[in-house]
Design a protein that fits this description.
alpha/beta, ten-stranded mixed beta sheet, 12 helices
Length: 315
């Protein structure tokens, strides 16, 4: 990693370990700490926003350059020294503790929440890059689980062979499907590989066999990939996920260099899309959050609280 890129990430409040792994406080963690406003994932899945470790084990290893991505792009470099899972997790937790240290003196922050934030119990393997490229991913997930931590992982679906080889899966696996067909995929996801769409289709075909909770995430950009309900439904039927999350694009980060605020669908538009999609795939709206422009499709009565689902305590 060159020094200019390193300095850019530090300025953006990333904290790095061995160049390839990083942690960063998300907007909703800060909101939770000082204003009591939680992330939609707390409402949907029972995880606590202030106890979430938003991290990546593979900062820049990604096969896409999505137009809607808020991360820094086009900074690829070869990783020669991959950290071991336990040391990486310990190091990133310590970096998170440094990042939250300022909240202790903020009168708006409850001291109990501050202490809990220093000891995360949820790992969001999703900060940047494609996490499945980390060579010790199974071991890392096992290390998290051995500490009673829940794990969510987001993948772009272009590494089906590596996904099939994992002998330990995250407790919740998101696969991002941000295009209804190959033409739009190439324009919106901007793959660096020639067979990205074919790889994604193999991942969708693999999903029904995976022994974990699966979620299809549709990141929807108005004027780009928003619409085509029948085609999205056909893809969802292949994947047969437990849940589907249609979510509106948000005009933040480096995506502002490529898109405009008019690309953000309204919540009403996301909800209408979700209702149409649910009708086609046999699901219904079970949860929603207007401020995050996101809807959760599933089946009434299905457990969504991940800690309860996996028999973990709520402390």
């Amino acid at each position: 990693m060159d020094q200019a890129y390193h300095d850019q990430l530090i300025k953006q409040q990333y904290r790095l370990y061995k160049d390839h792994s990083a942690v960063k406080l998300c907007h909703w963690m800060k909101e939770s700490m000082i204003r009591g406003r939680c992330c939609y994932k707390q409402d949907f899945y029972g995880i606590q926003s202030h106890r979430c470790l938003q991290m990546t084990p593979a900062l820049n290893e990604c096969s896409h350059m999505c137009t809607f991505c808020w991360r820094v792009q086009d900074k690829d470099f070869e990783v020669k020294d991959w950290a071991e899972p336990r040391e990486m997790l310990d190091a990133l937790i310590e970096e998170q503790r440094k990042l939250v240290s300022g909240f202790k003196g903020d009168p708006r922050c409850d001291l109990k929440m501050y202490e809990e934030a220093r000891n995360p119990n949820q790992v969001a393997i999703s900060l940047a890059g494609e996490p499945i490229t980390y060579p010790y991913l199974s071991e890392f997930i096992r290390e998290c689980h051995s500490r009673g931590m829940t794990t969510f992982m987001v993948t772009n679906g272009t590494y089906p062979d590596r996904l099939a080889e994992l002998d330990t899966l995250p407790m919740q696996l998101y696969v991002t499907v941000a295009a209804p067909n190959e033409e739009i995929y190439r324009r919106v996801c901007r793959p660096k590989i020639s067979d990205g769409w074919q790889r994604l289709m193999r991942t969708l075909e693999l999903m029904p066999s995976l022994d974990t909770r699966t979620v299809i995430r549709h990141t929807l950009v108005k004027g780009e990939n928003f619409g085509w309900v029948d085609e999205y439904a056909a893809l969802d039927r292949i994947a047969d996920p437990d849940l589907v999350e249609p979510k509106g694009y948000v005009f933040v980060g480096s995506s502002r260099m490529r898109l405009s605020m008019s690309c953000m669908p309204s919540f009403a538009e996301i909800r209408d899309f979700s209702k149409q999609l649910g009708d086609r795939i046999g699901m219904e709206i079970i949860k929603e959050r207007e401020d995050s422009r996101v809807v959760l499709l599933g089946h009434k009565g299905d457990e969504t609280d991940v800690r309860r689902l996996y028999g973990l305590d709520q402390n």
